[in-house]
Amino acid sequence: MPELPEVEALAAYLRERAVGHTVERFEVSSFSALKTYDPQPSVLTGLLLGSAGRHGKFLDIGVGDFHLVVHLARAGWLHYRDSFKSPAPLKPGSGPIAVRMRLDDGSGFDLTEAGTQKSLAAYLVRDPSEVPGVARLGPDALAVSLDEFTERIRSKKGQIKGVLVDQEVLAGIGNAYSDEILHAARLSPFALSGKLTDEQIAVLYTAMREIENDAVGRSVGQRAAELKGEKRAGMRVHARTGLPCPACGDTVREVSFADKSLQYCPTCQTGGKPLADRRLSKLVR
After folding, report:
1. What CATH number is given for 4-135 in this structure?
2. Which pTM was predicted?
3. I need a labelling partner for 76 at 20 to 30 A (CA). Which of 9, 57, 85, 250 fits?
4. For the FPG-type domain, which residue ranges apply (predicted)?
């Protein structure tokens, strides 16, 4: 799933490549992906693509007085085209393509989603706050002070892994980078947020800023097609089950859940004790 660094990089790429061009055609192939019905998609034709930014993990593309706000979900992506092979309009259900935006210079982009579980969501709105997910977002993970971070973490009781990825607590952190942040902070993913000391929270805050800023720095400037590989290359524990921890050499382990998993290093994070790999794992303190 694209997280804060990748969405920031996509926004930066659109600012470099697409901002300043006029929308020639906006097409919707997967009507389940477009979650709004007013205004109609045709309203964007002839309008200037004037901005690209983000709200947490939501991509926000400003066109005229409207915003195309996109949540790429687990399997969604943005594919930029310098030119399209065919000028013909998209047909409904055109494979993985959900939305296509063509620009006046012949370039543009597709929003695509792989797999059968369709979760990509696009909203055409007049104000981003009209998008329910945006309206519920907490402060951006890279915009909070240590004091605000401490308050936000302690306001939500639970295992720290779940608190970090709760978008109403902090916006932008997902499954992958939360694994990386916890590894850098040397904290168990099952540590309870309410029992963290001031020192542990300060270390966690520093780790969050370092991990996210480093990922943004590596990602911004990359072409959209290269971002997934850049993300994987920068991971130290996430998606590295069975490989040696780059910090201590211990084997990276995994805890699997129904629809996701987390990775961690026992030596660095749990006092050398492996976590039980089942949904109701006992907390390692």
Report:
1. 3.20.190.10
2. 0.92
3. 85
4. 236-270
